[in-house]
Design brief:
The chain is of the alpha+beta class and 403 residues long. It has 13 helices and 14 strands. Strands 1, 2, 5, 6, 7, 8, 9, 10, 11, 12, 13 and 14 form a 12-stranded mixed sheet that branches. A two-stranded antiparallel ribbon has the order 3-4.
Length: 403
């Protein structure tokens, strides 16, 4: 059932660009009991669809970059996700061969792969590089992923007892065959520019962005090579206690910055269809508005279903550093998805949620492809975030050695 009030709320989220708190009141009168008050929103470009590809990282960081260009006074642009994918695949393939097949080669990636791609190769618009060179009108990467991996495995096997000089251009040819040959110049606001010239013209500086994480298995206030499969190049993340990481994200929104988010969406509290990501306290029996007698008669499974119905706010678990560390170590929290956080709302109980732009298309739920991620969900399931350096409070930046 469609919620017209939610639709209007998320439409406003797309249109409003606010660096100071703004209030937009919306209530779902159809079948949801949530009432959200908008604290702040950051202007974002339209929701896209990654389709049948594992390239959420590129869609998330591209959306983030597009918002950053707008924040800095630039015009709205539609950047090519597949340009970052094509170049990162090439880099990842070379690393895979050099590591004798022991590193990760897959469709997944991290936010810094988009930033690093800009440093090395610049960016292109969607028009200049749609990445659809294989008879499809949407991204379907099953054949590309398997074919390119099979080719690399042959190279790693080294049947000639010496890796030839042909493997790299042959591998690049596979990528070009599927995603398209990269143009040397393209149209940028009426001028013909190279991808690197376009970056300079946009005012975007990839050196201004850092990744942060929060796990006590690494020393706090230092950098660490986050041990997750998609961090194949072992790039360094700044490690903060969770309370400091929360201070960063809230400071970022207060100052008008959005956030690129990396984390887990495989837990039961996540429902893109319902437009919610929460961590219900399944042990509680005190649900305001429910019939106590009916609740007490429910079986354990029925109670769990009631908790995860997303029909109204429910008490959530309090998440601290220990819960984060445990979920990371036992792998109930993994880096399976990246999204773009574009604002903050608060429900009628005072619970904070982060407005989250997904990359599963506008028709994937009733909210135009957006969802609300609760503060508890963020604390438990965030693996890392990417932010502008100025989005970090000065005392934390100093402690981390970020200039």
């Amino acid at each position: 059932m469609r919620s017209n009030h939610f639709v209007r709320l998320f439409t406003l989220i797309l249109l409003i660009c606010s660096t100071s708190p703004s209030t937009v009141f919306a209530q779902d009168t159809t079948h949801r009991g949530f009432i959200f008050d908008t604290i702040c929103t950051i202007r974002a470009t339209p929701v896209k669809h990654q389709d049948n590809s594992g390239t959420c990282w590129s869609f998330a960081v591209t959306s983030f970059i597009e918002s950053e260009i707008i924040r800095m006074g630039g015009t709205e642009i539609n950047l090519s996700e597949m340009y970052f994918v094509r170049n990162t695949y090439a880099d990842k393939g070379q690393h895979y061969v050099r590591m004798h097949g022991t590193s990760n080669y897959s469709a997944g990636g991290q936010a810094h792969h988009g930033i690093n791609a800009i440093k090395k190769w610049g960016f292109l618009t969607e028009t200049a590089y749609p990445g659809l060179n294989y008879g499809e009108n949407k991204h379907i990467h099953g054949e590309l992923d398997e074919a390119s991996k099979a080719f690399l495995d042959v190279v790693v096997k080294n049947p000639n007892h010496k890796v030839s000089t042909a493997w790299r251009p042959a591998f690049e040819a596979i990528l070009d065959a599927y995603l398209g040959t990269v143009p040397t110049t393209f149209d940028w606001n009426g001028s013909k520019l190279t991808p690197m010239e376009a970056v300079k013209a946009s005012g975007f500086n990839p050196d201004d962005y850092v990744e942060l994480t929060s796990y006590s298995i690494y020393p706090f206030y230092e950098t660490c090579a986050l041990e997750i499969p998609d961090n194949y190049d072992l790039k360094l993340y700044y490690n903060l206690p969770i309370n400091d990481l929360m201070e960063v994200i809230n400071y970022a929104f207060k100052k008008g910055f959005s956030v690129c988010w990396d984390g887990d969406v495989g837990n039961k509290g996540f429902s893109h269809n319902k437009g919610m990501a929460i961590v219900p306290d399944a042990e509680t029996t005190d649900f305001t508005g429910t019939e106590k007698a009916k609740w007490e008669k429910m079986t354990g499974k029925e109670r769990l279903k009631s908790v995860y119905s997303f029909e109204k706010p429910v008490p959530e678990k309090q998440i601290g550093q220990a819960e984060r560390d445990t979920s990371f170590e036992n792998q109930t929290t993994t880096d399976d998805h990246l999204m773009h956080l574009t604002g903050v709302v608060k429900d009628q109980n005072g619970t904070i949620y982060y407005i989250t732009k997904n990359s599963w298309g506008t028709e994937s739920n009733d909210f135009g492809g957006y969802l609300n991620m609760s503060e508890s969900y963020f604390k438990l399931n965030t693996v890392a975030i990417l932010v502008h350096k100025d989005a970090i409070p000065k005392h934390l930046a100093k402690k981390l050695g970020i200039k």
